[in-house]
Amino acid sequence: MSILPGYADRVGPKLAFDKVAELVGAPSSPENDKDLKIVVQGLCASYPGFDETAKAVDEVKAKRPDIAAQVLQPAQAPS
Known about the structure:
Blueprint: H1 7-25, H2 30-46, H3 51-63, H4 65-71
Helix pairs in contact: 1-2, 1-3, 2-4, 3-4
């Protein structure tokens, strides 16, 4: 099942975090990796500061640093 952009908005932070945990533990595949990126990006965009978002980011950084490097932006300086 492919996840579409906006998933985190549709299901909320708790279910989106559960999906991140599921995808992080799943074998790497192009579809799983794409889905993981979509869910993490959605959580970060829609629910910054939520515990679930912080936990999801930590999970991805710990278990899938390759994905973390692609989707997590370093803190940006004010322009």
